[in-house]
Fold this sequence. Notes:
The protein is of the alpha/beta class and 208 residues long. The chain is 30% helix and 20% strand. The strands form two sheets. It has a six-stranded mixed β-sheet with strand order 1-3-2-6-8-7, with helices on both faces. Strands 4-5 form a two-stranded antiparallel sheet. Helix 4 packs across helix 6.
Amino acid sequence: AITAYHFGNGTNEMVLIGGTHGSYSANTSALANEFISYLGADESLVPADMRVTVIPTVNPDGLAAGGTTGRFNTNNVDLNRNFDCDWASTSMWRDQEVSGGPAAFSEPEAQANRDYVSEINAVGAIVWFAAEGKVYPSACGGTPSNASVELAATYATAAGYPAEATFDAYAITGDMVNWMAGEGIPSISVLLSNHQSAEWSKNQAGIE
């Protein structure tokens, strides 16, 4: 099961996502679960016109697998290469070739994310990855929108992470956050500093 937790009753929905890379970045799921507890304890933290949805683990099978291999789903696909933005069947992770799946949205986890995001009035998305300690705005096939850049800058300043204009360490295809940006949703990737710490206080400040 991929579970979404909802807080607030407003029509403008902000989506917070962790666990795309399973046990390889288990701290992102841990961070998302901390937000579930935090917002669940005091739902008045959510502005009246907003709804906050937290999806702590996009890749539950990868999280259960443990170790570096848990970065991928049961089909050995990197879910963050399976979305319909510059999709390719093979992509890169650092200097390693990884599978983007036989087609965009071939994987049930990516389909579930796509279907949920497509149904709601999403005003923004924040997706946690590991590990670099930076924040990036996202775009599909062009320059990030002003809204994505502003969201990245606001989050980075509050959390104390550097904000970068683009991720250019290596080429990425089929990225989830870029796909959401291409759908008109201001979206950012927040890369935690390591694979161990949820960096709660930093990300609490960013979300607030």
